[in-house]
Specification:
There is one protein chain. The chain folds into three domains: 57 residues; 71 residues, Beta Barrel (Thrombin, subunit H); 94 residues, Beta Barrel (Thrombin, subunit H). The protein is 30% helix and 31% strand. The chain is globular.
């Protein structure tokens, strides 16, 4: 159904015009962005280490305070990058740092995995405690060796147990017990401009939380039913990201981007109904 990578394509000419198959991060090369952030983190921790040594020479100081200071410094460094380097797209890192301080968002992140399938990297999320994982079909297409990595539970080998290429979804199974997982909504419902969260592994980063709004449904060539349009900063690697409403339930799965004539660049997501109707 799609090309290997993050923005799926269809053989139909109309669909090719609709779906973007390009690097979404146009302001800066992703490797340069990654190195930039890592360098700033190194500087922040180096400054924190120097301050810790100075304080240690004066009087004992609780270790937890040092780590708190370090974490806050990293967040502050990331927060000033857009102003320092004038890179608008780096806002998604700033937003993620802020959202990660929210207890509910942090709990959602525990269920989101990195899916590695050959040369393809994407996102998935657990939907049962015994390791049932939902992702995009184009992330794992034609691959035999697949692994999934939980933030806290570690790495698991996984196999494809169900595949629905017509809606670009696939179900993986990793052997585990008591794994963190997300709850699926019974059906996809939303209000106009409803606020949503989504969590994924864009570019070379992992566990990036972000937010946006639901625009509405969109009919596309090659799809029998409409998909959701999202006003949200979606990048390569977000394929398979859960779209979570304010009640903490998954209403859709990110799979692509679109340049819409009216809305501009938007994210596309598969309504969770389409999966539930095929179970």
């Amino acid at each position: 159904m799609s090309s290997r990578g993050e923005e799926p394509m269809n053989d139909e000419e109309d669909y090719k015009r609709d779906i973007i198959d390009q690097d979404l991060y146009e302001e800066i090369d992703e490797e340069e962005l990654y190195e930039l952030v890592q360098e700033e983190k190194r500087k922040a921790f180096e400054r924190e280490r120097e301050e810790r040594q100075q304080l240690k020479s004066k009087r004992p100081f609780p270790k937890w305070i040092f780590w708190t200071i370090a974490a806050m410094m990293v967040i502050n460094i990331v927060a000033v990058l857009p102003n320092t380097f004038s890179i608008p797209a780096i806002d998604f890192l700033v937003t993620s740092a802020k959202l990660s301080t929210d207890d509910e968002v942090s709990s959602y992140k525990e269920s989101v995995v990195v899916v590695n399938a050959g040369q393809s990297k994407g996102t998935g999320f657990a939907i049962t405690a015994d390791g049932t994982i939902l992702t995009n079909h184009h992330v794992i297409e034609d691959e035999k060796r697949i692994s999934v990595a939980f933030p806290n539970e570690g790495l698991f080998q996984a196999e494809v147990v169900e595949s629905y290429p017509e809606i670009d979804l696939a179900v993986l199974k990793a052997d585990g017990e008591g794994l963190p997982h997300l709850e699926l909504a019974e059906r996809t419902t939303f209000e106009p401009d409803e606020h949503i969260y989504f969590i994924g592994n864009p570019l070379r980063f992992t566990g990036i939380a972000n937010q946006g709004e639901v625009i509405g449904y969109k009919d596309l060539s090659g799809w029998e039913n409409p998909v959701l349009m999202l006003d949200a900063p979606i990048y390569k690697g977000n394929s398979g990201s859960p779209v979570i409403n304010e009640e903490g339930k998954v209403i859709a799965v990110v799979y692509a981007t679109l340049r819409d004539d009216v809305e501009g660049r938007v994210g596309l997501a598969v309504p969770i109904d389409y999966y539930l109707n095929r179970k």
